[in-house]
Amino acid sequence: MEHVTHGITLDGVARFVEIATDALSSAREEIDALNVYPVPDGDTGTNMFLTVSAARDALREARAGDPELSLGDGMAVLARAALMGARGNSGVILSQMLRAYVHHLAGAAIADKPAETIAAAMAEATEASYAAVGTPVEGTILTVSRAASDAALEAAGRGARTRDVFTEAAAAARAALARTPEQLDVLAHAGVVDAGGRGLCVVLDAVETTATGRRPTPWSAPIGTHLIPVATTAPGDDLTEDGPGYEVMYLLDAGDAQVADLRATLATLGDSLVVVGGDGLWNVHVHVDDVGAAIEAGITAGRPHRIRVTHFADQVAGRRRTSTRTGRGVVAVAAGPGLTALFESAGAVVVTGGPGRRPSTGQLLEAIVSCGAAEVVVLPNDGDTVRAAEIAARTAEAEHDVAVEVIPTQAQVQGLAAISVHEPGRAFDADVREMTATARHARHGAVTIAARRAITMAGPCEPGDALGVIAGDFAVVGADLETVADEVLERLLAGGGELVTIVSGEGGVELADRVAARVEQRHPTVDVAVHDGGQPRYPLLVSVE
């Protein structure tokens, strides 16, 4: 790992956002369970994950499109994506912190005084978060942010290195989090720390890991457990005795003057008001009883879009909303045009994916919802996409009238095997079990060309070498793709099999035909199916069932 010790690089920023997204994904359920303030709707961890993952996905895409992307441009992409993807009270506040942090660094000479500059950026992020909240409350994410930035300023003031500034800020945040029940009665009564503060600690721990290469000291709750039951009310009741019953969020195109008036109007309608953004684009969050008035205020100020309204009681009680959803759908991630056609011909809604262009949680969520089905099966078809699919599934279940199951397919050919036995007429659980079992029994492999020198499980390889992949690991190194493909299939068939599926990629159609002919010759009792997948990087994908 390249440590961030003397400044900030775009590689470092990208590593941070990857680590933070993974960490929030792992901590999501724990943070959701801690969520009792401002309302016990049990989604703080999910919202913070979705906010940061939106920033990660946008930065990935921008870097893929422009390998020479500058640090300033990359951080601007990250900040804007976090603003547009922000969800919930804590997610919106976190997006404002990221925006303010990036804005400060963009105007500073980082290389001259990196520790002081970074500490000042953290302080600006704290001030911006307080300013964004209609009525700041201590014992929340704001308090944790203040403790972190104060510790950063103190460390930088005594000449600490940049990495130590990050370490001390993260430690101070964890200490402040442990004190939040002393500052907010609702936390003390529930026996939990603040959920948003815990989420911010996860993000700051990711900063520390990026800067030092070390994992921070594990955090444990001073009271209570990680499995805190979320308070619920009778369906149809407001979530809190005196508080508003709805969360309203929207993006808003408007000028600064109009937003000032909007803040004043929304403050009279409800609570938990947070308005963040700038440069003509804002993210608005408020809890109200009069949803129409909150949206009308946005129309008066500018152009609201991506409007989301959540009824807290329905969200927590898990009550199904009235819906026209029927039937069962399948969402599949496809890595090439031919694979897209194969999945679509089987009735799936396809999300484009594959190496270097893995779909975001938001894209998967949109596909699940767009199915219009009451039951949806998701086939991620890539190990790195499974977790994003699971988050999208849980979010869809919480916010829409849909039951979702993710079959953790690790490869495109496993997805093809699963969808081949999909039967909408079966009971949902039975269909999922059959598809899952079929996918697991499909032994999978691939062949590709080495792009750089590396050490693999099969030994060293040089650029241009043919590589054979079995179950996700490089298992064969050779000089010829065809020879390596034969070896991969022979190893897969060593455990027996009745059906071999070969999917050709870009430039691999003739290769697939030759390899298929040899399998038929050597294994006359095995059926062979060949498809044109059109996927990049992998001339052949193969499976044995």
Keywords:
alpha/beta, Alpha-Beta Plaits, single chain, Serine Threonine Protein Phosphatase 5, Tetratricopeptide repeat, 545 residues
Description of the molecule:
- The strands form four sheets. A six-stranded mixed sheet has the order 13-12-9-16-14-15, sandwiched between helices.
- It contains 19 helices and 16 strands.
- α5 packs antiparallel against α6, α6 (141-157) packs parallel to α9 (195-212) and α14 packs across α15 (386-399).
- The protein folds into four domains: 10-212, DhaL domain (Serine Threonine Protein Phosphatase 5, Tetratricopeptide repeat); 246-317, Alpha-Beta Plaits; 328-441, Phosphotransferase system, mannose-type IIA component (Rossmann fold, 3-Layer(aba) Sandwich); 443-544, Hypothetical Protein Tm841, Chain: A,domain 3 (2-Layer Sandwich), CATH 3.30.1180.
- Residues 1-6, 219-239 and 318-322 have low confidence and may be disordered.
- 50% of the residues lie in helices and 17% in strands.
- It has 545 residues and is α/β, with parallel strands linked by helices.
- The chain has helices spanning 10-34, 44-65, 71-85, 88-106, 114-132, 141-157, 162-183, 185-190, 195-212, 256-267, 291-301, 312-317, 337-345, 361-370, 386-399, 412-420, 428-441, 481-493, 509-522, and strands at 246-253, 270-278, 281-288, 303-311, 328-334, 349-352, 375-379, 403-406, 443-449, 454-456, 459-461, 466-470, 473-478, 499-504, 527-532, 540-544.
